[in-house]
Structure formats: C-alpha cells, structure tokens
Amino acid sequence: MPPYPRTALCPSAEASSARFVPSRATVGLTLPGHPRSSAVARGAVSVVLRAHGLTAYRWPAVLVAAELVTVAAKLTPGRDLYLSLRYRDDVLRLLVWDQHPRHPVPAAEALCTGRRRALWLLATVVDDWGGEWGTGEAAPPQRGTRSWVTLPR
After folding, report:
1. What is the full per-residue pLDDT of the chain (153 aa) written as tens digits?
2. Sheet containing 24-31: which strands, arranged edge to edge?
3. How far apart are CA 16 and CA 13, in angstroms?
C-alpha cells in the first residue's frame, strides 16, 4: 500500500478540461502606494488573464493597470490602494481606488489636475480598444478617488 491514499479524479474535472470558456472573473488586490506597485499590478493582471483564458486582453489590460496604479501611487505615496479586475458579459473592467481626497474648493481641484493629464497614454489605449475610462469620488463609506476602465471584447 502506498504511503498516501489514492484519489480518484472527479468526472466533472475531466469534462472541464475541454476548451475553457471564460464567463466571469473577479480579482482584487491591495497594494502600497509605492512606485514598485506598478510592476506587481502588471504581473498580477497578466497571470489572472492567462489563468482565465483572457489573453486577448493582456496587452491593454496590463498597460491600463500599470498606468492607473502608477498615478495613484504618485498621488498617495505610502498609503494603500486597491486594484480590482472583473470580467463579465464580454467586458473587462479594471478599477483602482486610492486615498487621494476630493478637494472641497474648486480652485484647489483645478490645481490638482495631474491625474487626468498623467493618464494620456491610458486614454489613447482605451480609445483604440473602444472602451471607456473615468475618475470620480469613491462611493461612501470609502473616501478618496476611484479610476476605472472598461474594455469590451
């Protein structure tokens, strides 16, 4: 008798080894507000897309994640930020939440336009893919800013 128990393969596991068709994928990751977090985000997004059979999205999604995380880390150094990747209904959505506050005074907000300006490369890629992107205030109870991108199939 072997030193470990024998296991049988589940019949559904054999059936699922046929062609994998992604229908849903959801992954979230908390990162520090540090320039190196961009590399972590790129690697994580790449691995998740490969694991879910979504390699067609790899190039734009990795670039989008890197850009969103880089800008968030610059605006909130040393503070946590959150990266979310979700695939549903043939649309990939990436969201980054950071702790950069909304400015209550319009003049201060006008001076703090660095986020939209810094995301020019992201805007070009998203437009080329027929997607959408934006930034806004995080929904309560969260505080800070959320930046998001959607990329259709």
Report:
1. 555 555 555 555 554 454 555 667 889 999 999 989 999 999 999 999 999 999 999 999 999 999 999 988 988 899 999 999 999 989 999 999 998 877 666 666 655 656 777 788 888 889 989 999 988 887 777 788 889 999 998
2. 24-31, 81-88, 91-98, 145-152, 132-137
3. 5
- The domain limits of the chain are 23-152
Cα–Cα distance between 55 and 61 in angstroms, integer? 10
| pTM (two decimals) | 0.78
Pick the CATH number of 23-152 from 3.40.50.300, 3.30.390.30, 3.40.50.720, 3.30.565.10: 3.30.565.10
Concatenate the DSSP letters of all residues of 56-93 into one string: GGHHHHHHHHHHHHHHHHHHSTTS-EEEEEEEETTEEE
